[in-house]
Amino acid sequence: VNRNSESQQIQNSSGFKSPAIARDHEKQPINSKYLVQRNSSIVKEKNTTLVSVKVSERDRLRHLEKLAPPDAPGEFGNPVQIDRRKLSPEQQKRYDELFKRNSFNQYASDMISVHRRLPDIRNPSCKQETYPENLPSTSIIICFHNEAWSVLLRTVHSILNRSPLHLIHEILLVDDFSDLEFLKTELDEYLAENGKGKVRVVRTPKREGLIRARLLGYGEATGEILTFLDSHIECFPGWLEPLLARVAENHTRVVAPVIDMISDRSLACGGNEIGNLGTFEIANMGFNWLTLNKTEKAKHGQSEPWKTPTIAGGLFSMNRAYFTKMGTYDHGMDIWGGENLEISFRVWMCGGSLEIHPCSHVAHLFRSMSPYKWGKSFRDILRKNAVRTAEVWMDEYKHIYYERLNYDLGDFGDVTDRKDLRNRLGCKSFGWYLKTMLPDMKLPETALYSGEVRNMEKGMCLDTMGTTAGNKFQAIPCHHQGGNQFFRFTVNGHIERDSACLTDQDGSLLYVLCKRNVTKWEYTQEKEIRVQNTDKCLTLSSRTLSVLPCNNGLNQKWTWTRKINK
Ligand code: UD2
Ligand code: MN
């Protein structure tokens, strides 16, 4: 009853209403075994007495378990558009709760078959590729924390339905300490019946985060190749063979599919790829996508994999023995984030390669915010994982990131064994990696000193006062908080922050864009800030800054918060 009125609200792109799949469900009796065992209360709803409150998740969503007719909601990746205003108050409540719990529209997902079909979006030239019969098989590792039933199972069935079964050695689902009851009580039984004998669930004894959860799955895996996937993905036809073929050909390749988007509102899944290459930003250690223009794309060809500086992290195949040899993942990383850059740097610097295969497409449900609890603060965890990566892999470039943290690195634990790993593997430098993989990346000049610039006479500090480039410059009392009082003295003699520099203009101190012919300074033994090869020094009188003949006075002596030791 309930479900039918919900389904009235659906309208997919073909204008289709009241989907057959939902009607079909009405005919299907709810398994009485479950009702007796699990339902305790009787509720009244719309003049009908229903025994329903604690229907098991599996029973509630049993209508999803089969291949739906082609015009059912979401089939072929079509969007499921729900007009929330037309739902009943109870339905609205559930719609909102489910959205909040997942950061995506579970209400819509629960209307789509877990076996939904997807179009074949491969480039025609990919369809002509042939692959060896005897490709090695793969262990697929998917970790999850409180994933929605319909989304998790659609992930699993999209793999089972669209991969040659002999290439799947096993699917390992790693439950990272979910507290949703049905994931603990109903999942194993469902998969025993519907997993084609391939799926196994393993569980972490406490919340570990995705890095250690994946490592637990790795410890259980016995396939020749490992394939990591997120728990809210759908595989397109032909996704697996290209990945396995590339790894089989050369075991040092780490190969990722093209990642397409699943809409967090309508669950539409039609093949719009999110980006072409992975890069990152040192100053915040964030992953970014790069989009190639048409010419660059054409250069790569239609079915040839291309090299990528970094991977997004969630989806890739890698030879299992090579994963072991290369030091798996950093076990000291918590919950989420950073492991993708860590493995990217490591693979390139230690002799392997990362690539994206244009013939392999997997869709991923991107959410605008993280739905689960992080325990500690979000910022602390991201910082810890990023600092561990920077400490081990980034050599002197780590300072670019650390400066932004104001050298407040937090407790990042012990990284000795990761440094040992780097030595053992004889890896190249981070400078080599940047030069080779990201030659166009804009980097700030290396700093020799950074922090606040404090006058020794009056304890005043250089301060931008929020001014923009092109203005005169001031000093005010030091506040020790970085911010507007944060500067860098670079190897090239520039005093800069972001893209602005301090320059001497006829005795006045100006703040200008670094591009122009700015002053080169020298920080002397006597703690003067001198214009290079002159006798002129940065001078403070009252709050005014000027550049005057050096006189060895305290008002011409300055200290920096830190000297950067490489
Ligand atoms: C991206 C990656 C993700 C991971 C992350 C950085 C893609 C498509 N996704 O963010 O795989 O590399 O960047 O760390 O490239 N999970 C747990 N326990 C936790 C938290 C998460 O098991 O404590 C699971 C989660 O259910 C999911 C996977 O780990 O299956 C990745 O988490 P996510 O989906 O929140 O990460 P995402 O896609 O935002
Ligand atoms: Mn994800």
Kindly describe this structure.
The chain folds into 3 domains: 31-109, no CATH class; 124-365, Spore Coat Polysaccharide Biosynthesis Protein SpsA, Chain A, CATH 3.90.550; 447-563, Trefoil (Acidic Fibroblast Growth Factor, subunit A). The termini are far apart. The chain is 28% helix and 25% strand. The strands form 9 sheets. It has a 7-stranded antiparallel sheet, covered by helices on one side. It has a 5-stranded mixed sheet with strand order 7-6-5-8-14, with helices on both faces. The chain is built from 19 helices and 28 strands. With 566 residues, the protein is α+β, with helices and mostly antiparallel strands. Manganese (II) ion binds at residues 230, 232, 314, 364. Pathway: Protein modification; protein glycosylation. This is Polypeptide N-acetylgalactosaminyltransferase. Its main location: Golgi.
Distance between the termini: 70 Å
Strand order of the largest sheet: 18-23-22-21-20-16-28
How does CATH name the architecture of the largest domain? Alpha-Beta Complex
- Looking at CATH, the homologous superfamily of the largest domain is Spore Coat Polysaccharide Biosynthesis Protein SpsA, Chain A
Number of strands: 28
Mean pLDDT: 88
Name of the CATH class of the largest domain? Alpha Beta
Q: Which topology of the largest domain does CATH recognise?
A: Spore Coat Polysaccharide Biosynthesis Protein SpsA, Chain A
Count of all domains = 3
Q: How much of the polypeptide forms β-strand, as a percent range?
A: 15-25%
The coarse silhouette is elongated
Q: Compute the CA-based radius of gyration.
A: 29 Å
* Unreliable residue stretches: 1-52
- Note the total helix count: 19
- Provide the helix percentage: 25-40%
Ions, cofactors and other ligands present here are: uridine-diphosphate-N-acetylgalactosamine, manganese (II) ion
Family: Belongs to the glycosyltransferase 2 family. GalNAc-T subfamily.
GO molecular function, one term: polypeptide N-acetylgalactosaminyltransferase activity
EC number: 2.4.1.-
GO cellular component, one term: Golgi membrane
